[in-house]
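lol ok so funny story. i was supposed to be doing the assay writeup but got distracted and ended up predicting the structure for this chain instead. priorities right. anyway since i did it might as well share w the group, maybe its usefull for someone
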Amino acid sequence: FDEEQVKHIDLCLGCRTCEGVCPSGVPYGRIIEAGRADVEDVRRPSAKRATSRVALRQLLAHPQRLRAAGTATRLAQKLHLTSIARSGRMLPPLRAPFRVPAGNVAPAIGERKHRVAFLVGCVMPILYPQSHDAAVKLLQLAGSEVWFPPGERCCGALFAHNGDLEGAQQLRDANMRVYNAGAFDALIVDSAGCGAHLKDFYPELQGRVKDLTEWLAEVGLPEAKRDVKIRLTYQDACHLAHAQKIKKQPRDLMRALPGVEWVEMRHAEICCGAAGLYSTLEPEMSNRILQEKLDDVLATNADVLAVANPGCQMQLEAGLKKRGSAMKVEHVAEILARAF
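and the output, tada:
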């Protein structure tokens, strides 16, 4: 056993495209994660991999520590210190993190038709709080009372993707105790990787985990109040298109917006190279994949690129900036919220 033997599994994106085309329905995502866990048990960890595991265990698993790290990073950005390292340059400009409303509930706007739980998660409230703000607003407009489960933690997706199945299980156990304490019609998720993990590894929630676009397509949104005059394209998140088989709903919702000029991207379903921690652990291959994706993105001449996952958003924003493009990258929720 040596590093050459495990290089193949290290280079696997875990994008689960293979699941979408496998006629036998082999769950490659679970197999890959189990394989990575076995590898981590016997390999001699590199400094980079050891650091990533420590960061996951000591930061992502602890919301208050993660918020403190976010505050420190915002200060470092103001002092231009984050440009020293590649990972720092990849970060979006950080703003104040997402805040749960008083009482842990955001009321429905108009008649209350549903009560939903909302996954705040670990990375999204720090990196892209505006996506959460837009998602909650849309849920309220759709007649949903939004409950934010107190004590909810990271769903465990990044742990599992990185081969730390034990850490992922600990988080799942803690979260299920929180979810079992509340009553809700659905658990809404606006991060594709988290949604796939919840659907795969939270059997007690079977049938109730819904991607934001999946839920909004089911319950409907009110009539748009304003035109959204942009040329718009969309990048499929791998764990939304391949793992959750959700491709139509986000497109239908965005194409229905008045004023939108829709442009379908070539190879929209192919990975952008972000893949959780992949861009950090395998930066050379990640960048090769990203450059091919950017060629397809820029060929659309869109004003805005819509995404459904924070890792994709960060990867594509950094790539477009490096190419000198003015194209914006926004979460689907932000696009939809423009109309209200």
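The chain is about 50% helix and 10% strand. Residues 102-219 form a domain with the Rossmann fold fold (CATH 3.40.50).
back to the writeup now i swear
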